[in-house]
Design goal:
Radius of gyration: 16 Å
Helix content: 55-70%
Number of helices: 4
Strand order of the largest sheet: 1-2
CATH class: Mainly Alpha
Order of helices and strands: HHHEEH
Structural class: mainly alpha
Largest sheet: 2 strands, antiparallel
Number of strands: 2
CATH topology: Four Helix Bundle (Hemerythrin (Met), subunit A)
Distance between the termini: 39 Å
Length: 160
């Protein structure tokens, strides 16, 4: 999936590829956590009630980042399907990730570089981001959760 066309803004192309790499890496870490029967720390946060909810959270956030970017740039809807329901997420996550990453590759190819900077927009959670910063956030999100899962695995191993 590395064959990406030339983008008007090479930074968007780079961030799209980084997003792909880190989403795949997160999924591999999630699968290891699932195999190791890792339990998430107790919290009131709905996104962290189980390994399934954190997987859903990361996949849904990725979808929402691109939908938000397209909306702010007045681009067509990227037509990214929502992630599978929690009851099917483990079984269908690999297939869904392929769809998600394929849809991520399309919208930003022809967007001029100047539209990625200078104007900030309110995110779905209330913070202001320019488009480039939201792309960077989309790259870091799976990295943060992969780091979390790897630490939980490491801690579990040290207790055995």
């Amino acid at each position: 999936m590395k064959n990406l066309p030339a983008y008007n803004y090479k930074g968007a192309r780079s961030l799209t590829l980084l997003h792909e790499d880190h989403m795949k890496s997160f999924l591999r870490a999630w699968e290891k956590a699932k195999t190791a029967n890792i339990k998430l720390p107790e919290t009131e946060d709905e996104d962290y009630q189980s390994l399934e909810t954190i997987l859903f959270h990361v996949l849904r956030a990725s979808m929402r980042y691109m939908v938000w970017i397209c909306s702010k740039l007045n681009l067509s809807d990227p037509q990214i399907d929502p992630p599978p329901p929690l009851s099917e997420i483990q079984l269908k996550s690999g297939e869904y990730l392929k769809h998600l990453l394929k849809r991520w590759r399309l919208p930003l190819v022809d967007v001029p570089e100047d539209l990625f900077f200078g104007t900030s927009y309110k995110s779905n959670w209330g913070d202001e981001f320019c488009i480039d910063a939201m792309l960077e956030h989309a790259v870091m999100h799976p990295i943060r959760h992969e780091f979390q899962l790897k630490n939980l695995i490491k801690t579990a191993k040290s207790k055995t």
